[in-house]
Structures are given as C-alpha cells and as structure tokens.
Target: CHC2 zinc finger
Amino acid sequence: PNLSLKSGTSSTGIRTSFLLERVAHHQLVYPPSKTKGENVWFLSPFRKETTPSLKIDTNRNLWYDFGEGAGGKSVLDFVIRLKNCSVKEALENLKNDTFSFHQQEIKITETNCYSILKMHGIKNAHLIAYLRARKINLEFAQQFCVEIHYALNIEKEYYGIGFKNNTGGFEVRNKFFKGCLGSKSITTICNDSDVVSLFESWSDFLSYLTLKKETPKEDFIILNSTSLVKKAIELLARYSEIKVFFDNDEAGDRATNLVLESTKNTSSDIRVHYKNHNDLNEYLVKKKLIG
Model:
C-alpha cells in the first residue's frame, strides 16, 4: 500500500498530514530539544546521545539523522528503521497507533532553567486518558500524584503527571514525555509496617494498588531508577518481609539480585506472578478482569 507524503488519507486509512511529527513525539524524548521554523530536532532513538541529531521537517514529512548520515522520505521509512520491521508490520503499527519504543529518560535540572508554574489534582483530560490507558485507578493516582505544569528555558508551558521523590524532585510522565524535574532520588511511603514492597516506577506502584483495590498496610519504596537500588537497600534492615516487584529485564534482574543477596531470607521475588510481562503495569493492562 502507498503512504503518500501529501496531506490527506493514504490507502491504508492513515492520515498523513503532520504524521511524521506525531510519530516522533511518540517515539522520542518530548518536548523536542530544539525547534527552528518547520524543523524539529530530537535526540536520536538509534543511539544514546546528548546533542540532538535527528531533524524532522514537519512541513514535508521528511526526517534525517545527521549522526548516521541517512534519512527517509516518509513516516513509513521512519517506523521501519525504528522498529526494524517489515512494511506490513510498520503499517499495522501506524494504523493501530501502537508504539513501544523505550524512551531515553531526560533529566531536567536547574542548569536547564526549568520552572514549576503550578501543581494541583489531576484534571487534564489527556493525563486522565493516559492513566486510563494504563488501567491505573484514578483515585490512587490522585492520592499519590499531581498534575504539574512547568516551563523550560522560559519557553512554552508543558504538563504531566508528577510523582514526588525524597529530595523534592518530580518524576514527570505523559503520553510523550518521560523525565525528572530536579534531583533524582527514591520515593519512600511509610505506614509503620514491618513489610515493605519495592517498585521501579510509580506506575508499577499504582498498578499494585489497583490490583489489590486498596492500599495495603505496608511500606513502599519506589526506586524511580534501578541505578538507585543501593539507596533502597540501605533502608531494608528493619523489615521482616521484603517484596520485590521490579521489571523483567536485565536492569530489573540485576536490581532484584542485589536486593535478594543483601537481605537473605527476608525478601522474595514477586515477578514470578507476572513473568510473561515486562512489568507489573503491563500485566495489569493485559489482565482482562481489571476495568
């Protein structure tokens, strides 16, 4: 099937006007690193980098990766390169709007000149839709998260779901963006319990509450990054039971092993209950009985 660069609808039923920019927003760190006229620059998803080298021409739907010296003439080229898939698979991804590229996380510190404009309960329809898509109970999200609005370098306003860590920084998420405002740290939630549950992310933590349909009488530690697992381990000596809910990937394996080795007989790897899924949230999303 032909995917035209012109505005309108292709033979696959995919709207092509500004489609490439939309795909880029799904796949890459958002907000864009730089915008100049009709050109939008992103950190390339094809490698780790600190200087954006991927240019999107939003008018002509063209993309060019200066780091590789290569580009494409359509959104289809972009998805095929990104997903390493066939034309048929790329078209199916576009039609279903199913994107699973793991974003590079961006850390926004004071050197980036960010400012928090306002915070309040989660009201934005797009953020609520994001939570619903991940099957997270809205009441639990309202209890532990906020809607946060911020600006970067005195530019336009952005917003996302904010989850506060122990140093006052915020993990920020929306459909397009994954990052941290301020200092990166773990988050501890204490309920005077001798049982503690450990999670990699706030979405897994809230998925656990959603599955339980309550907040169990437990303490909780959310790493916000597996690189911070040793900070969590420092807090575990006083617990008689430690439950580990990390991801089913290499980083999750390493973090889980560190916890198990450090706490001997008091810890258990709960991942056996969602071993066929990437993480607890994916298990929740695919669990048919959860509304």
About this structure: Residues 1-19, 26-30, 98-104 have pLDDT under 50 and may be disordered. The first strand starts at residue 34 and ends at 36. DSSP finds nine helices and 16 strands in the chain. Residues 106-181 form one domain.
